[in-house]
Amino acid sequence: MEQFEKLAPSEAYQHWIDGTAILVDVRDPQSFRAGHASGAYHLTNETLSTFLEQTDYEQTIMVMCYHGHSSQGAAQYLINIGFESVYSINGGFEAWLREYPQAVTAL
């Protein structure tokens, strides 16, 4: 994969259920604390190096933001540094919350 691809929330949810992809959330800390997809890794500038050390570059990554726009830049960045399979979730957290409220956790 030379460029990230977009993923529908339903496809992302299926990967999440099956455990076949890592879900990362790139939103700000306050938004993440208020609610995020259960089990999502909060990927920030501060957590990036740990994520890179702990994650297999062959593992599928799904990137979530607010509405599906800023996740595209983050997804492309992950592709550019060597991850093989990266997706941006269309509609972001807002779509996830609307369609799968049972799969949301707040801190």
From TrEMBL:
A Pfam family: Rhodanese
CDD domains in the record: GlpE_ST
Principal location listed in the UniProt entry: cytoplasm
UniProt-annotated catalytic positions: 65
GO MF annotation, one: thiosulfate-cyanide sulfurtransferase activity
Superkingdom to which the source organism belongs: Bacteria
InterPro entries the record matches: GlpE_sulfurtransferase, Rhodanese-like_dom, Rhodanese-like_dom_sf, Thiosulf_sulfurTrfase
PANTHER family, per the entry: FAD-DEPENDENT OXIDOREDUCTASE (PTHR43031), THIOSULFATE SULFURTRANSFERASE GLPE (PTHR43031:SF6)
Family matches, as NCBIfam families: PRK00162.1
Name of the featured protein: Thiosulfate sulfurtransferase GlpE
Organism per entry: Providencia burhodogranariea DSM 19968
